[in-house]
Amino acid sequence: MVKVKAKNKDRVSKKTEIPVVDVYSLSGKKVDKFKLDPSVFNAKVRKDLLYQAITMYRANQRQGNASTKTRGEKRGGGRKPWRQKGTGRARAGSIRSPLWRGGGTTFGPMPSASTYPIPRKIKAAATISSFTALTRYKYTLVLVKDPIPSPPQTTQRTAAQNSSN
Q1: What DSSP letter does each residue of 52-102 carry, written as one string?
Q2: CB within 8 A of 16, min separation 6: which ones?
Q3: In this structure, what are the phi and psi dihedrals at residue 24, rounded to the nearest 5 degrees?
Q4: Angle between helix 47-61 and helix 120-136 axes, rounded to 10 deg
Q5: 8: pLDDT confidence band, cut at 50, 70 and 90?
Q6: How many CB atoms lie within 10 A of CB 41?
Q7: Burial degree of 132 (CB within 10 A; 0-12, 13-18, 19+)
Q8: In 3D, which of 18, 38, 22, 40 has the Cα closest to residue 30?
Q9: Which of 45, 50, 60, 67 gives a 20 to 30 Å CA spacing to 81?
Q10: Residue of 97, 107, 53, 47 lying closest to 76 (CA atoms)
């Protein structure tokens, strides 16, 4: 009998350290530290799921409305330009043939939907993987402690962004 070893939880990596980020005030000073949830910010990075999520996002961004007219969609060309035999010219059935100038396009682009759905659980796992990758590779996550003024002021926000850099 072969023993099958149960897989470890994929959600949390072997490193159980809790990621900590700095909390800043609107003036740009460090005020506090904040512990992030390790099940979200210290999970296993699944590159395959990230690839699927990015592919889905990019496919869903496409409009897919490029279009050309075939010989049947072109205007005109209802009768034979000349008779079948006896003229010495090649056979022709329509002036909208793709071989003719002003004719239709043979295999041109047509509108198509290129949506790419992925399951909810894969999307959630990819989101967790992206958060983990961002914190693991030291991308800055800024948490602001001060409340935003009731009429938001662009000058205050710009000053806060400039002071944090």
Answers
A1: HHHHHHHHHH---------TTTSS---S-SS-SSSSSSPP-S-TTSTTSTT
A2: 38, 42
A3: -110, 155
A4: 110
A5: very low
A6: 20
A7: buried
A8: 22
A9: 67
A10: 97
What angle is formed at CA 41 by the lines to CA 145 and CA 24, rounded to 5 degrees?
Answer: 20
- In the block, tokens 């330009």 appear at 81
How far is Cα of residue 157 from the mean position of the Cα atoms in its chain?
Answer: 29
Token pair listed for 56: 């889905």
pLDDT tens per residue, range 37-96: 888 888 999 999 999 999 999 999 999 899 999 999 999 999 999 999 999 999 999 999
Residue type, 5: K
Cα separation, 90 vs 100, in Å, equals 12
Supply the mean pLDDT for the chain. 83
The contacts of residue 141 (CB under 8 Å, 6+ apart) are 21, 36, 134, 135
Q: Is the distance from CB of 156 to CB of 24 less than 8 angstroms?
A: no
Better-predicted residue by pLDDT, 47 or 162: 47
* Per-residue tokens: 7: 């897989």
Distance CA 56, CA 140 (A): 26
pLDDT for res 101: 94
